[in-house]
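User: Hey, quick favor. My workstation is busy. Could you predict this chain's structure for me?
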Amino acid sequence: MAELFYQGHASFRITTDSGCVIYVDPYAGKGYDEPADLVLVSHEHFDHNNIKLVKLKKNGKIYRSSDLLVNGEYRSVEFNGVQIQATPACNKNHPIEQCVGFLITADQRTIYAAGDTSKTSYMSEKLANIAIDYALLPTDGVYNMNVHEASECAKVIGAKHNIPIHMVVGDLFDEKIADAFQANGKIVLKPGMKIRL
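Assistant: No problem, here it is.
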């Protein structure tokens, strides 16, 4: 069964049933020892794009926001049985033309990695109509929406499970913010924890 390993901040790793390894926003924590099939970078801030941490497999691919958002078009790609759809991500600290989130579908599971964002109309207009199994939402309240807005977004999106991430500036995890996040199917992951998808 596929698994998600949380490294902290906005960094996590997905391993599919077939052994496809996907890193999202490499920067924080440990667990970069498995060579990658895919690396997804939501935007080019230093705390999301440290691809030097990851060793690519021979045919591995790196997709940056600039690869998946071209002339206002949010693109999709398929690789090793994994479907990646770029989604809007933006706020006052993250220009909409430079940032994306990701819908990642593998092993009949769909994960929404919101990227650095605040609430967007896309969440209610599109995501609410998609069967999302896991939504990972930023909650720091400085560079992104705060935990209360993230809780509202979770309700709008309606994923089966919701995971607060990107909790506090300069640290990998914050217990108080995790506790304050309110959402159906809430899962709190501390750095180094993994779940079966």
